[in-house]
Amino acid sequence: MYRFSSTYSNSNLSYLGVLLLPLLLLSQIPFQLVSCGNIVQFLPGFEGPLPFVLETGYVGVGEGEDVQAFYYFIESENNPKEDPLMLWLTGGPGCSALSGLVFEIGPLAFRYEEYNGSLPNLVLRPHSWTKVSNIIFVDLPVFTGFTYARTESVAQRSDSSLAHQVHQFLRKWLVDHPKFLSNEAYIGGDSYSGIPIPAIVQEISQGNKEGLQPWINLQGYLLGNPVTTRTEKNYAIPFAHGMGLISDELYESLQKNCGGEYINVDTKNVLCSRDLNSYSEAISGLNTAHILDLKCEWLDNEISWRRSLIKKDQSKFLNTHLKLPPLNCRSYAYFLCAYWANDDNVRKALHIHKGSIGKWHRCNYNVPNKIDISSSFEYHVNLSKKGYRSLIYSGDHDLTVPFLATQAWVRSLNYSIVDDWRQWRINDQVGGYTRTYSNRMTFATVKGGGHTAPEYKPEECFTIYSRWISNMAL
C-alpha cells in the first residue's frame, strides 16, 4: 500500500533543520482546550448501537490550522484509563485511516456479500487491537480520507510536513483528551508509514525534551511491512528466487549483470535490462501484495459502478472499462468500503464537514508527495540510542516490501541479539519467526502474511501485538 513515485526530487534539507523547524513553530502555538470530537453511537450498516466507544472529529494542524485532520478514536475495550494509547497511520502516502480500521486492526469489518444497491453491512472483527489499547486512526497527510485543506497553500504533501502535522495533531488531541495524558503512547503504522513514523517519534521525543506541552508519555513505535530505505525492491528478486518464482539461471544472470542493483538501472546496461524484463514476465499475473492470493483488478470508480448497478443498466456497465472483481477477491471489500464512505447518511453519522471533500477514496495517490526523507534508517539509529521500544513485523509472502529487505536493515543496526531467531507460536502452531535485539527492537515474521500482514492474518498479528504491547516475549 505504497508508491515510490513522486513528481519532486529529494530535498537537501539537513537532518537538524528538518527536526528543529517544526519544534520552533509548534512552540508558538497556543493550545486551547476546545472540543474537537463527537461520540458516534450508531453507524449505518451496523445493527444496533456500537459495543465500543467511537469518537470522530477534526484537529486543525499547520499554520492557521488550515489542514483539518480527520480522525477516528476508539477507546480500549479492556481498560481505557490504563491501556496504551496508539496513534495509527495507514500507508500510501494517502491511504485513509478507515482502511486500517476496517481491513487491518480495528473492531469493524465489511461483510463479504454481493452488492445489491443497498448500503454494505458492517460486522465486528474478533481480533481488533482495541481489545488491548486505545487507538487514534488519523487521516494524514492532507487530502487523505476525510482530511481537507482550507487554503491552497497547504495542499502540498511531503514526508517531513506529514511528520510535523502528526506531532502537532497528537499534542492538540491530548489537550482535548487530558484523561489519556498519563497513558503510555506509541506510534504505529504500515507500508509507506515506515518513512515518516520514525521521524514522528523522533520529533515527539525532541519536543518532550524541549518542554513542549502537553508532555507525551512516549514509549515506542511499531511498523508493519515498512518501507525504510526505499531500496526494498532490490530484495524482491532474491525473495522471488527463494520462493521459486524465478529460475536459478535467471537469478544468477541478474546477480551477474545487475550487481544486486535493480532500481534505476542504467539504460546502457543492456544485459541487466534484458534480465529485468525476464523477471517482470516471470512474476506477471502474481499479486505482489501476497504471492499466493488472487490477483484481481481494482479500479477506483466505485460510484459509477454503483449507479450502473442500481439502474440495472448492465449494458452501460459492461461497455465501460470497469471490471467487477469476484466476490472472493480481497478488492471486493474495497468497493464496498467506498460505497459506504461516500453515502450521505454515513458522512452525517461520522460528522463529516459538509462540502469539505468530494468523493472519498480509500487511497488518494493523485496528490504529489515531496520526498524529503530519503530513508528512515538514521531515525531508527537515533531512537535506538534513546531506548525506545520497537516492533517491526513483516508478512513473509509480501513481494511488495519483502521481509528480506526489512531483516537486512534491522540486522545492519549491529545490535547484539538477546533472544535469537526462533519460532513464535499461536494455538500450538507456528505463527512465524522472531528475534529481539539489545536496542529493545523486536523483529517478527508472520507466516502466510502479505502486504499488509494484519489484513491477511488478523489473529496472528493481534497475538504479536497484544504480547508485545504487554511487554511479554512473543
Describe the overall structure.
The chain has 474 residues and is of the alpha/beta class. It is built from 15 helices and 16 strands. The protein folds into two domains: 315 residues, 3-Layer(aba) Sandwich (Rossmann fold); 38 residues, no CATH class. About 11% of the residues have low confidence. The strands form three sheets. Strands 1, 2, 3, 4, 7, 8, 10, 11, 13, 14, 15 and 16 form a twelve-stranded mixed beta sheet that branches. Strands 5-6 form a two-stranded antiparallel ribbon. Helix content is 32%, strand content 19%.
Quick recap:
The chain is of the alpha/beta class.
CATH homologous superfamily annotation of the largest domain: Alpha/Beta hydrolase fold, catalytic domain
Give the CA-based shape: globular
For the record, the CATH class of the largest domain is Alpha Beta
Structural class: alpha/beta
CATH architectural type of the largest domain:
3-Layer(aba) Sandwich
Strand content: 15-25%
Taking the sheet with the most strands, its summary is:
12 strands, mixed
Mean pLDDT, all residues = 89
Q: How many H/I helical runs?
A: 15
Would you report the number of β strands?
Answer: 16
Percent of residues in helices: 25-40%
SSE map:
Layout: H1 15-27, E1 37-40, E2 54-61, E3 67-74, E4 85-89, H2 97-105, E5 108-110, E6 122-124, E7 134-139, E8 148-149, E9 157-158, H3 159-176, E10 185-190, H4 196-209, E11 218-224, H5 236-242, H6 248-258, H7 270-283, H8 302-310, H9 314-318, H10 331-341, H11 344-350, E12 369-370, H12 377-386, E13 389-395, H13 403-411, E14 417-426, E15 429-437, E16 441-446, H14 453-456, H15 458-469
